[in-house]
Amino acid sequence: MIERSQPIIAIATAPGIGAVGIVRISGVKLEPFIQTLLGKNLLPRVATLCELNDAAGATIDQLVALYFLSPNSYTGEDVLELQGHGGPILLNMILERCLELSNNQQPMQKTLLKGLRLARPGEFTERAFLNAKLDLTQAEAVMDLISAGTKLAAQSAIRSLQGEFSKDINKLKKKLIYLRILVEASIDFPEEEIDFIKSEQARELITEIKENIELILFKTRQGKVLSQGVRVVIAGQPNSGKSSLMNALSGEETSIVSSIEGTTRDVLSETVSISGVPFYISDTAGLRKNSEDEVEKIGIQRAWRRIKEADILIFLSDLSRNEDKSYLEKNDWILETIKEGEIVKPPVLYVYNKTDLLKEGSLLKKVSENEIFISAKTGEGLQNLKEMLLEISGWKKNGVEDIYLARQRHIQALNNTEENIKKAEQWISNSAPSLELIAEELRLAQNSLSEVTGEFSSEDLLGEIFSNFCIGK
Ligand SMILES: Nc1nc2c(ncn2[C@@H]2O[C@H](COP(=O)(O)OP(=O)(O)OP(=O)(O)O)[C@@H](O)[C@H]2O)c(=O)[nH]1
Ligand SMILES: [Mg+2]
Predict the structure, then answer these.
(1) 151-224+405-468: what fold?
(2) Topology of 8-133 in CATH?
(3) For the whole model, what pTM was predicted?
(4) Mutate to test the pocket of ligand 1, among 234, 237, 239 (most ligand atoms within 8 A of CB)
(5) Average confidence score pLDDT of the chain
(6) Residues 6 or more apart from 285 whose CB is under 8 A from it?
(7) What are phi and psi of 36, to 5 degrees?
(8) 230-392: what CATH class?
């Protein structure tokens, strides 16, 4: 069984060759272990040049060791960082030496860190959370920062890591708790006629809380677009210019373009940053009903699968064939098939390509809002297309301070909070409001909010009540 109290070890740097590679250990009381491993004691937070030897005394590496004494470390436990030369074989030898030293001890030998094991993914950060070095949103921000797909995503992740998101959640929670205290007091001390719930103050407080949640939710939704990116799939008949569009958007020659129908066989994807938002754009095989080619058929199946997973579908059509009845019928067949699909339908953006082939002065009339005319060849209309993609994804032009790099979990919890607040509000506006029901909705709202930062506890409220209220009066 995996034990939380066991010391853990991992290579902390990315795989591959680099100037420096780091092996990190976290556990309780590392000092005796360090003494045996490196043959000397380390001063906390002082970089010390050491030699690390194998069991027979041969040097494995010359490295810089850093020791962080609990609680002043990333995990809150004692942490040892061994900064060796950055080769994968070498780092594995260092790791194995540490494991061997910990796990091949004589039964009576009580000097060393026993039971050292490989860390699970994210376990150092999990320990930081369990030891209250970070709250849950900050712990999540660590991962978001590391995996940020664009500069804007990285900038907002660091803000979450520095506690901006948690700070706003906690401010909101304070207001909610204050309201709860007043409601609970009205229940507990009816004789004092705290007729609070019918007052203007109750209404104002609840409106303020609601507006606050809405603002946080807005910033959170923006952050989700930024952290998770938007999956865009380009689909359409062969030769409509899907690969040309993909290349024009990404600025790379990723896909092969040719006038032969059925050029693209596999799904090809590229990440394109539009105003700092990562769009994962996929070029797919041209869709047609009766392909005879085995490989093309597989490509078409893959295209359909990818369409079902899209957040936004670009349905590309060749404008120069807009008078060709059989071409338009085939377009209709594709759109019908998408509509009939059981899976949630993505928003469709109808894009007409090859405007450059139109006779000069031809009138392009939009039939619906989600239509756009472009030329993948000349670049005409591409800026419009990008703006439309941003709009459909729900992105608004924001400064970094208007975004929390958040996840679905946060949005869900905030939605639940909002729902409970709205119910409480309804009860309050009732001609005979039930205090118990209002109190219950507010309690649930607070629980959901506490889920965001990960410190839900029913003891919280009691503590707050006693410290805020002079209950013995
Ligand atoms: N004039 C003009 N030609 C274009 C434009 N976009 C693409 N083409 C040409 O149309 C042909 C097909 O382009 P592709 O990008 O390979 O088309 P596709 O939709 O990926 O085709 P498949 O992979 O076969 O499904 C090529 O000869 C391109 O040069 C455009 O905007 N204007
Ligand atoms: Mg293609």
Answers:
(1) Four Helix Bundle (Hemerythrin (Met), subunit A) (1.20.120)
(2) Gyrase A; domain 2 (3.30.1360)
(3) 0.69
(4) 239
(5) 86
(6) 238, 262, 264, 265, 266, 267, 296, 299, 300, 302, 303
(7) -75, -40
(8) alpha beta
